[in-house]
Amino acid sequence: MTIKHAAFIAGAYEHPTRKAPDKSVAQLHAECARGALADAGLTKDDVDGYFCAGDAPGMGPLSMADYMNLRVRHVDATDIGGSSYLMLVSHAAQAIKAGKCNVALITLAGRPRTDSRPRAVNPDQPDVQFEAPYGLVTLNAYALCAMRHMHEYGTTSEQLAWIKVAASHHAQWNPHAMLRDVVTVEEVLASPMVADPLHRLDCCVISDGGGALIVVSPEIARTLKRPLVAVRGAGEAVKHTMAGAVDLTYSGGRVSGPIAFAEAGVTPADIKYASIYDSFTITVLMQLEDIGFCEKGQGGRFVADGNLISGVGKLPFNTDGGGLCNNHPANRGGITKVIEAVRQLRGEAHPKVQVPNCDLALAHGTGGLLGTRHGSATLIMERL
């Protein structure tokens, strides 16, 4: 087979734990690495590039390469929150294309559920002195976006609830998912209001765990007995408060999505499956609009009536249950979006949610806060 793409995802592994009081974060990273390498049919001695983000302990790639006894010639520790690991897949592909490495290991791990303590605020962070006094937290920053979207476009809480309903329909088939009960729109709306207009069931779970990916060169991919999943297109962007010209109705996906589609040479209509970062239901709705699956302001109509449910709707999404129902480790859960997309492309998703003839998939993530500053990363992957 002729391989025309620059890099391939050869290994993918999601840690099954959702609470790990008996494991260190470094140990979780190592266990994820071992799982992904085994999935690819490689060993740690094959790895010559290592990638991680801010969830890695110590000095990131320095500490973890030492801990796992990796001998690498290229490292990357780009950290833009939840979208870090989608961006790192793109960076690994770029490094492979540039000849910096041939086998890139990417690992994520965390214990936010076990540790259950708030992250410290760094007083030297430039935004803190302006925003902290007003009580800005993750939850109300996303609620601001949801309220503004409702004001501008008439989006409803019922429409947002359909996103949670779709995730729950998928999570029921995932034995590792934290929330496996199928919920209704009425049950989402009846859950406690936590930051108007977001209800408790509009929010993602908090879990320990992690995951890992192996990205390899075409030459390595030819030697492995695994389905070929190519990185076909990638885009990345940063959106911030723009010196006060704040517009809460869109995200960085408006930039990263078109870049990825142009690089891949495909359109949103070609995508068979989408993994969309789902820290909150509003996150999904805005990303679907910004990436190009529907017009801006039409996200509510797009997600309603089960349109995201595999086997029912027009665009199956997050068939593992996503962050809304399955897991959300280390506040950088974007790696799980790539892992489930790889499963779909390989035909290895649960039979109840496997998308037929899934040959083109998208994964998209956001990191930071939609209401202030965040990074966006979009990946388009293809089964050859």
Account of the 3D structure:
By secondary structure, the protein is of the alpha/beta class. The chain has 14 helices and 11 strands. A 5-stranded mixed beta sheet has the order 1-7-4-2-3, with helices on both faces. A 4-stranded mixed beta sheet has the order 8-11-10-9, with helices on both faces. A two-stranded antiparallel ribbon has the order 5-6. Strand 2, helix 2 and strand 3 form a beta-alpha-beta unit. Helix 7 (157-171) packs across helix 11 and helix 10 (253-264) crosses helix 11. The protein is globular and about 55 Å long. It starts with 7 loop residues before the first strand and ends with a strand. The relative contact order is 0.20.
Keywords:
alpha/beta; 14 helices; 18% strand
Low-confidence stretches: none
Question: What can be said about the biggest beta sheet?
Answer: 5 strands, mixed
Q: Summarize the amount of helix as a percent range.
A: 25-40%
Q: Structural class, judged by helices and strands?
A: alpha/beta
Report, as a whole number of angstroms, the end-to-end distance: 9 Å
**What is the approximate shape?**
globular
Order of helices and strands: EHEHEHEHHHHHEEEHEHEHHHHEE
Strand coverage percent: 15-25%
Number of strands: 11
Tally of DSSP helical segments: 14
- Radius of gyration (Å): 19 Å
How much is the average pLDDT?
94
What strand order characterises the main sheet?
1-7-4-2-3
